[in-house]
Design goal:
- The chain is an alpha+beta fold.
- It has a single domain, classed as Aminopeptidase (3-Layer(aba) Sandwich), CATH 3.40.630.
- The chain is 28% helix and 19% strand.
- The protein contains four helices and eight strands.
- The protein has a five-stranded antiparallel β-sheet, covered by helices on one side. The protein has a three-stranded antiparallel β-sheet with strand order 6-8-7, with helices on one face.
- Helix 1 (26-33) crosses helix 2 (49-66).
- The longest helix has 18 residues, at 49-66.
- The two termini are 30 Å apart.
């Protein structure tokens, strides 16, 4: 089961609210997905707006179909979404993933992704009952690699990748499942 029996739709940290996506988040997602920064996650300049809308709809649909999905990230005092952090498990993925794209570059370098990813990591292990997860990271995505390492994750050189993509795999494990992996 992907989401266990929980129906939790919001998490809070010291500075952030992580909530399920809604229609008002779409313009912020589309601006990100049309940027050069989104090349590492399948977007980029000159995007097909219909495709970016479809991708966003899959985030919303995960919540409807599975009872959980990636959370949009906001500061507590603002209703401006600037990232997406959370559980992600498309049907063609070999494993459950924790994803964490921050859409707005102004919000990088302030430990926001670390704060949000730490909360979500606790949520998937403690509330959803996951024992392990991965983060698939493009080799050029140095900020995401640094975040995985700040979270204490290491590369899993034996893990499968989606569609044999050229990505690095960083392993997240619950406290109950800490053994039997080859690290690189």
């Amino acid at each position: 089961m992907i989401c266990g029996s929980t129906r939790l739709t919001m998490l809070e940290t010291r500075r952030l609210v992580l909530r399920r996506p809604k229609a008002s988040d779409l313009p912020f997602w589309q601006a990100y997905f049309a940027s050069e920064r989104a090349r590492l996650v399948g977007g980029g300049p000159a995007p097909n707006r219909g495709f970016s809308r479809w991708v966003f709809a899959t985030f919303v649909g995960r919540w409807e179909l599975n009872g959980c999905g990636p959370f949009v990230v906001l500061f507590k005092e603002r209703d401006y979404s600037f990232g997406l952090v959370g559980p992600w498990y498309p049907s063609n993925w070999p494993e459950k993933e924790l994803t964490w794209p921050i859409w707005a570059p102004d919000y990088e370098g302030h430990s926001i992704a670390l704060e949000a990813a730490s909360a979500v990591r606790s949520h998937v292990f403690d509330e959803l009952g996951w024992r392990t997860a991965v983060s698939y990271i493009a080799p050029r995505n140095t900020r995401s690699i640094a975040l995985a390492e700040r979270l204490g994750r290491q590369r899993d050189i034996e893990a499968q990748t989606p569609d044999d993509d050229d990505v690095l795999v960083y392993r997240h494990r619950s406290e109950q499942d800490q053994e039997g992996i080859l690290w690189s």
